[in-house]
What we know:
This protein is of the alpha+beta class. The protein has helices at residues 8-12, 69-84, 89-97, 102-112, 119-137, 147-158, 179-198, 224-238, 268-280, 284-288, 318-326, 348-358, 366-378, 383-390, 395-398, 408-440, 445-453, and strands spanning 21-24, 31-35, 41-48, 56-63, 242-243, 263-264, 295-296, 301-304, 312-315.
Amino acid sequence: MANEKLTKKVVDALLPQAKDYVVWCGKLPGFGCRVRPTGHKTFIVMYRVGGRNATTKKVTIGTYGKITVEQARDDASKVLAKAELGEDVAAERARVRAEMTVSQLCDEYLREGVDHKKASTIESDKSRIEAHIRPLLGTKRIGAVTRGDISKFLRDVASGKTARPKKPGRRGSGVKGGRGTATRTVRLLGGMFTYAVRRDYLKENPCRNVLLYKDRKGERFMTTEEFRRLGETLTLAETEGLPWAFNEGKKAKHRPVRPENQREVFSPHVTAAIKLLMLTGCRLREILHLRWQDIDFERGVLNLPDSKTGQKKVLLAGSALAILSDLPRSGVYVIAGNDPEKPRADLHRPWARIIKYAGLDGLRLHDLRHSYASIGAASGIGLPALGKLLGHNNPSTTQRYAHLADDPLRRASEEIADTIAAAIGSVASEQRAQISKDETSPQLGGQTANAGIS
């Protein structure tokens, strides 16, 4: 392959591997095609200016599909010809790119630097760029951005400088600030500037060594009592309904009179979605986008074609299977919404009512996944097995539950202490039994003395 000329047939036959790799053209030295694990293919050219001892430079020609192999070869030949004449194309590009604005870097990054990301992650990136990065840093030249600018950006987003309320009639919850949002947005910025460094637009990433806020995303683990209250509320919601909370004032006379009209009965699809989140540890989108064809009832498995970590299988317990079996079918998706051909968008309104009635203010739907994981960790199944149940690709992700795991040292400590406590308890029990026997014996104590006197 190394001695073969790069052609359309050759490039089409290149398959993705676990890591990036480059196949070089055997006819034009320095010209190659880089293949990423996602299957994304780009043409590159490598050269030196100033002889064998000079530093190797690399220039990206373009993406396969947007340009042909022959077009890329022509461009690579021009770059190599300029290098022979002492012209450094990479350095010139870097000089020009250093004059680009942060907003222009955002555009290029979304166009060429996100091929390794999932579509849902790219949408989140776009949202953060439009909500926070463009308004605060968009017009600034990337070469002029300093670590101090990034620190100020972090504080501004955290304080709510870019926050905006939800627009009437629009979905979503508006633009929020806060420390978590600020930290995640600076991480995105860091990725964009890393892209710029790799392209030789910059020498250093200005986000490096910026002290970020801790991003715990408000983890909460439910107690058994909280699970009980939530379960009772769900049962009431789908049977009798949850009572409305009416406002006092002039409009009180317009309240419904009949008791049955003073309650809201929730759709079985809503309550089933929440129960499935509790019983499977799935993410919200995995349940809302679940289709009936994805369920293998015979084997008790959800075959999810796409999730945050790619294709995924979810094992179903009997309780989860029972919920799915009893749920009425009214379209393609398991959790039916207003349109039977589209997945339900969210559970914002019903969830807000349910947690308010259950006295679980502040509980998020994602906390059900954390709680599932916490129970699994405490049960002693082991973090590797828990990671597989949750669909974690990286073991470090599951480590966040390590402090909840059934620690072998703790078990050993409990066993040793239990053995000693049992021994102490048996001695103490014998002593108590002997004392009790002595107190009731007619031959000892005051009773014997009294008998002697009489």
